[in-house]
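I'll show a typical protein example:
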Amino acid sequence: MRAVAAGISDVGLQRDHNEDCFAILGEQGLYIVADGMGGHRAGDVASRLATDSIVDFFRSAVGEDFTWPFHFDSRLSDEENRLLTGIRLANRQIIERSTRSRECHGMGTTVVGALFNEKNGKMYIGHVGDSRAYRLRDGQIEQMTRDHSLVNDYLQAMPELTEEQRSELPKNVITRALGMQEHVVVDLQGDDARIGDVYVLCSDGLSGMIDDSEIRDVVAGTTDLDEACRRLVALANEHGGEDNITALVVRIDPSASDTSNLASETMPRGAWHGREGSETPPAGSVAGKSAT
């Protein structure tokens, strides 16, 4: 099996700049979405720092002589250790930047990352915050991640809450993010991928504006991953576009003898999208597509 991916990020209709960021590292099967937060435009610094830190770690963590910056957990697979370490490194760098710079003080970001191992056919997912990962399989959509949000924590602890009580809970309050504290807890899981599976990584600017069934219908309605990303963003904007919107779609295809790889990171003000083989996104936009 191989993974083919495309992504797009859009500022939305009600924000003046984009604090979302995503990365595609095709040659290593790595896909990341981050949604920044913080005043004085520090949110975009945090999300960019998160994606850059994770990508840089994956590019460096090769060879037997590589020294791991954190303890290697023997209970986890190599892929889980790599994903966990990359996210923990991002957390460390965000905290260090926040400490050094008054403009960046208090900044943070959510993150969801997926790492595909074509040898064992597993998709490893790690996340912190409320950026999500979905899986579409056999016409059904499943949310793979659990939001680290105040509402979700209340519902998990007190599932008997009435609709009226739920409506009184503050919305959009996250309880876990990179940059919040020195030691970050990362949720990890491994999924046995199948040919035809599609994974959608997104910021809450997408999942908060359209429901799961709409995500399923859009992604299932086209085989063009670029088009799927564009339609998802367009639909979120049609529903109000209240936040920045990022969608990254990964499809599991049969293996091919000839594939091209592209690494891309995004930090746009407007929309960013691209096709396989493109090298540099245009000014003011960001996108990427890759096959591994």
Summary: The first strand starts at residue 2 and ends at 10. Residues 194 and 252 are 7 Å apart (CA to CA).
